[in-house]
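ok trying this again, last paste got cut off
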Amino acid sequence: MGYVLELKNIGMNFHDAQGETIAVDDVSFGVSRGEFVSIVGPSGCGKSTLLSIISGMVKPSRGECTIGGTPVSAGGKTHSTVGYMLQSDHLFEWRTIMGNVRLGLEVRKDLTPASLTACENLLSRYGLAEFRDHRPSQLSGGMRQRAALIRTLAIDPAILLLDEPFSALDFQTRLHVTDDISTIIRKEGRTAVLVTHDISEAVSVSDRVIVLSKRPSRILNIHSVGLSDAETPPIKAREHPSFRKHFNTIWKELEG
């Protein structure tokens, strides 16, 4: 199978005054085009480190990461084919919502009539057109995350990396925003990799869930889930008869 993203025998060592620490050890997996994959594991096991390697922000100590068959070279900044959503939406208050959405295009010097039209279409498609001239502080937390995702989609990334993007939200808002963001990603046909501590979240949104061990992290298991799609949002996936089974299996693997 040809993967749009592939990690091959990835290892990552960190050095400090106390010596060398192996954070990630021999991790290999692939992600197909349009697939939504989640990574779960204990705190400090290297989940976010894997995203940094995929994005090209850091170079692995061992192994290789490829996007579209081309090796990712670390240069201290996000790879041009990768969109990154972090825990905070990082919207600038001194810019309007439209100004924030077009920021990535400005940085890449790709602000054209066609790309601006694409931004307008995304805002319209996902319910933010009437807020295009508002400031971020005038939007709810969920709407801000939607704006942050639209900003990421505006640069037309091959891969979306989501590093705990819903963790700062209260539980009820988190459920709705997870639905919102997941549905947008599905409808846009994007390839996504989500890092989360929330097993329920991972099971409800993912085609597959990758379970990592404690540090040094290795893959304990990869579960095929597929309870949600463009027509079945994650909140409905939680009602599926298989949801609890997947949740319990992954929980026991992490506890074990």
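PB: full thing came through this time. DSSP finds nine helices and ten strands in the chain.
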